[in-house]
Amino acid sequence: MYANDMYKVAVIGCNSFTGGYVVDELLAAGEYQVLGIDREEKGRLFLPYVQNDLRRFRFAQMDVNKDMADLLALLQSEQPDYVMNLAALSEVAPSWEHPEQWMQTNVVALTILVDGLRHLPVLKKFVQISTPEVYGSVAGRVQEDAALKPSTPYAVSKAAFDLLLLAFVKQYAFPAVLMRAANVYGAHQQLFKIVPRTIIYEKLGRKLPLHGGGKATRAFIHGRDVARAYVAALTLGKVGEAYHVAPETTVTIRELVQRICDLVGEDISAVVEDTPARPGHDAVYSLDASKAKRDLRWQPEVTLSAGLAEVIAWVDTNWAEIREESLEYVHRA
Predict the structure, then answer these.
(1) Neighbours of 285 (CB within 10 A)
(2) Rounded to an integer, what distance in angstroms lies between the CA atom of residue 122 and that of residue 281?
(3) pLDDT reported for residue 1
(4) Cβ partners under 8 Å of residue 208, min gap 6
(5) Total-model pTM
(6) Structural domains of the chain, ranges and CATH numbers in brackets
(7) Is 12 helix (H, G, I), strand (E, B) or coil?
(8) CA pair distance 199, 301, nearest whole angstrom
């Protein structure tokens, strides 16, 4: 049952990896009623928030492509103060195989969503979870005003909706804020992602393919740190602005895998094999997060070493269940 004196937040994509951390952060704050919306239900293995007090949480199973009329009717009925959208098709490589599906979900469906949301009289903020992939391959420290040069269908779809939102801000004073986070990791992540996949492959004695030899540079940030920034953006984010959520340091994928190998006491040569680079994967990501630190009063708190150790412990604790799960990405339109 919702309390009447709390702000109401609708989290679309609440059962995505980062969405689970966002809901957990909102519930832990103690001042929000949370309406979680997602196309699928998940269990405790992949959702940190299910261990929280759920009396201020309500879940609605809806798909942005199939149930948009019902979703908008629900939001009209609930009248949330804030809406955060994490719903998206988010994998890069498969977007080359079905680009029209990425455009449908990430552009067309979400355009219908915000065109409906702009008529909600109580809406204070719409926080859209974008991606740094919209910048393409860039050198140096990237700030939020960098040119958008997407190089994959996924990145193009995200950039297109970002631009649509900024047009809505200008035309309708729509209260949108854009968030672009570095590579998010942590316990409860999809098992095909690089951090849990490396740990699992090591435990299974399998060789992990390192695309391009693992030379790509990325910044990895823990899901809890990302969730804190996203929640701060609800109240502190400035309309029409984009914010980076990233640590100060970057690592190559090979260096990341080496850190995991060091933590589990395994030689990297026993864990990886080099494979060709995948098409359209950008070589460099280095995000300047100073604006988020200033405007959102945010700082990352979880070190990479501590975060990796946490994921290792999560895999070890849930190994009986994890080893029965698929380790591959399964595409759903």
Answers:
(1) 19
(2) 40
(3) 39
(4) 197, 198, 201, 202, 257, 271, 272, 273
(5) 0.95
(6) 7-184+220-245 (3.40.50.720), 187-218+249-285+302-322 (3.90.25.10)
(7) strand
(8) 23
